[in-house]
């Protein structure tokens, strides 16, 4: 497991902060990925002066947890996670080696488990799945600010 921080530019409009992480193929990688996401957002707050609320922290950790859990569950081998903040958006991208494109299942309150992609779709502004030369990359885009864009209902977490 390791981290590599990408280019970082000045604070303000056009701020771009990014980091990529290789996650191991053990069960601890899910918690480790959440920890890395929190550290990344804390750095955005402290080193770059960006406003990152507790809600944004929580939702980002939720998305990281669901995407990395799916990668660990359905794809053999390592997982890569890329986090980026640009223009008020947090991108959470997770790559795994399985080329199968997932789809959210129809809501079923009686079903136990397999709600991860449904959850990510519900909290993300945009969700994209891209097949790659090897595997696939799933990217969820989240607002950095607590105020939803027009027409979007805000998710309220306890």
Give a summary of the structure in a few sentences.
The chain is of the alpha+beta class. It has helices spanning 29-46, 54-74, 116-123, and strands at 2-5, 16-23, 79-86, 89-96, 126-131, 136-143.
Secondary structure topology:
Blueprint: E1 2-5, E2 16-23, H1 29-46, H2 54-74, E3 79-86, E4 89-96, H3 116-123, E5 126-131, E6 136-143
Antiparallel strand pairs: 1-2, 2-3, 3-4, 4-6, 5-6
Helix pairs in contact: 1-2, 2-3
Task: Using brief descriptors, characterize the structure shown.
globular; 3 helices; 6 strands; alpha+beta; disordered N terminus
| Helix/sheet category | alpha+beta
Coarse morphology: globular
Major β-sheet strand ordering: 1-2-3-4-6-5
Number of strands: 6
Q: Element order, helices and strands?
A: EEHHEEHEE
Strand content: 25-35%
Q: Helix segment count? A: 3
Question: Which stretches are poorly predicted, pLDDT < 50 over at least 5 residues?
Answer: 1-13, 149-158
* Mean pLDDT across every amino acid position: 83
Using only C-alpha atoms, the radius of gyration works out to 15 Å
What is the helical fraction, as a range of percent?
Answer: 25-40%
Summarize the structure in words.
With 158 residues, the protein is of the alpha+beta class. It has helices spanning 29-46, 54-74, 116-123; strands at residues 2-5, 16-23, 79-86, 89-96, 126-131, 136-143. The chain has a six-stranded antiparallel β-sheet, with helices on one face.
């Amino acid at each position: 497991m390791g981290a590599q921080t990408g280019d970082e530019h000045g604070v303000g409009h056009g701020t771009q902060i990014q980091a990529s992480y290789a996650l191991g193929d053990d069960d601890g990688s899910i918690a480790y990925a959440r920890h890395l996401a929190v550290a990344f957002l804390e750095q955005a707050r402290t080193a770059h002066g960006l406003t990152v609320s507790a809600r944004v922290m929580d939702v980002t950790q939720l998305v990281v947890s669901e995407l990395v859990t799916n990668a660990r569950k359905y794809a053999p081998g390592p997982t890569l996670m890329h986090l980026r903040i640009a223009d008020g958006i947090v991108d959470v991208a997770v790559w795994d080696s399985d080329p199968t494109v997932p789809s959210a299942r129809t809501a079923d309150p009686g079903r136990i488990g397999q709600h991860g992609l449904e959850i990510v779709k519900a909290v993300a502004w945009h969700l994209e799945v891209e097949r790659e030369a090897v595997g696939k990359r799933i990217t969820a885009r989240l607002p950095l600010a607590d105020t939803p864009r027009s027409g979007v209902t805000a998710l309220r977490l306890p």
